[in-house]
Amino acid sequence: MKRFLRIIGFVIGLGGFSVAHGAAVQCAADHCGAIKDQVDATCHGTGGGLVYVPTPQDPKVWCWCKCSCVAGDTLVRVTDKAFKRMQDFKAGDTVLALQFDGTWKSAPVVSSDGMGDKTTPFPYAIYLTLSNNISIVVAPDHVFWMPDSTLKRADRLAPSDSLVLSQGAKPIAISQIASGVYYGPMWNIVATSEQDVSSPFGHLIDTSGVVSGDWALQRKETQALQTGPQVGTAEYRKMHISSLSKQKSLPKVVVLNKAKNIRFIPHTQVAIPKDAIHLLPEGEDQAQPNELYPLDYSVPYEMAEYLARQYKTFYPDVEYQIDWLNDAVNAVAFIRNGKRHVVLYGGLIRHHRLQVEGAGLVIAHELGHHYAGPPRYPNNIWASCEGQADYWGAKIAQRKVWWGEYSIDQTTKGAAQLLDLFSKGLLTPQVGAKPMGICSHPPAQCRYDTYMAGLRLQPKPSCAGDPALMKK
Ligand SMILES: [Zn+2]
Question: Quick one: CA dihedral 151, 222, 155, 238, positive or negative?
Fold first, then answer.
């Protein structure tokens, strides 16, 4: 029987990002620590993963604290013979910690914290199976102790890597590695000392038989360990193509605890049919790598899930999906088996220039392909043309989803973000060019003008399609 372990690590290392989703900067650890009770109470109420709070320096500037509130499962060795679930640890307990001389000694647990439940998605977790058939789900920035006495982040492990067994001289091979969405509690503990992390020893613990860093070690080291391609990226898949092809594939849903409905859903590329309609023409949707947030930055995912819930309230017949691993700056609409779909690609929502308003306007545009009426694609008769979808999205969907004056704000900001996004190296500028037919993608400025015309109840600009055809 498989045994499972869940360990926390928080997404950190975002201090360098200046562009933000609303209030994107993570608060200083001591600030979150000082208001921990308030944060925890809010997390319990919302079931969310992040809480936005004002910074202590300036109440107009906001930052976010990670939730650390919900009980979780975990297996950590406390004596030669016994493991204990991480959620059961309390400050003052003891845990076995690896020492410099290679022995395991009992050490004090100085803190124990966690977050999440079966309803809160942890968008980018790492799933490992070892050759002894033990499976482990960890946060991407969780650190493992490697056979060469270095630390490695979970999302940088290669499929050919081995991990260190706490008992036994030989390292153990990884037989499966995958990224995916985890639904369940994530937890962490600190052994020995919160402050003194001058050496990994005292902070290395036995997690389901393999040696891992505790939360203090992870917090200290994980930023410096962000080297090499991340599990799930195209670069990673290319680099490890032969070992990954030998891996046994995972089921669609890995059930970790049936009674508690704790599960891991491996990331898979969403199957996009050939006749799907794209937000941007294919080939004009490639970002520079440094324009995208990394896969372990969860704010855009939370944002997209939130938006999908909002738009679904008003357009319930559509299936909304996130293709997190897909780096293309795009979104699509299609119909499959009679069901309407809208898919947001990871490269779109992870793009630095796009924030919540722009992402919402993209969904409105994609809904426009389904509901905006004529003119339609001649060879794809269910789908409204690009300019028509832009116009209807701003004019109708945005007004329906965002009440009254909120829709003015959402659409104005969204249009500005999309102009900024489209006009900087994506949608090819076609200054002065004539429309290439009623359904082609208009140039960036025209798309902006079309959104604003929809908002202001002005006629659709002629650059957004042939008005004569609309009268049909
Ligand atoms: Zn479109």
Answer: negative
323 and 433 fall within a common domain: yes
Phi-psi region of 232 (alpha: psi -120 to 50; beta: other; left: phi over 0): left
Among 376-385, 404-413, 419-428, 451-460, the least confident range = 419-428
User: How far away, in angstroms, is 369 Cα from ligand 1 center?
Assistant: 7
pLDDT in tens, 294-333: 898 888 898 999 999 999 999 999 999 999 999 999 999 9
Of 444, 439, 440, 445, nearest to 427 by C-alpha is 444
Its sign, for the CA torsion 391, 397, 400, 406, is: negative
DSSP code of 460?
A: P
Tell me, yes or no, whether 330 lies in a domain. yes
Report CA(272)–ligand 1 centroid distance (Å): 14
pLDDT, tens only, 284-295: 888 887 899 889
Question: What per-residue confidence (pLDDT) applies to 281?
Answer: 85
CA distances from residue 397 to 310, 391, 431, 454 in whole angstroms, order as listed: 11, 10, 29, 10
- Give 245 Cα–ligand 1 centroid separation in angstroms: 35
Q: Which pTM value belongs to this model?
A: 0.82
Name the domain count of the chain.
2
Last residue of a domain, one of 217, 235, 253: 235
Which of 215, 235, 255 represents a domain boundary (last residue)? 235
- Centre of ligand 1 from the C-alpha of residue 268, in Å: 23
- The CA distance from 248 to 264, in Å, is 16
CATH number where 128 lies? 2.170.16.10
Distance 182 CA to ligand 1 centre (A): 31
Residues 352 and 297: beta-carbon distance below 8 Å: no
What spacing in Å lies between the alpha carbon of 198 and ligand 1's midpoint? 54
Percent of the chain with pLDDT over 90: 54
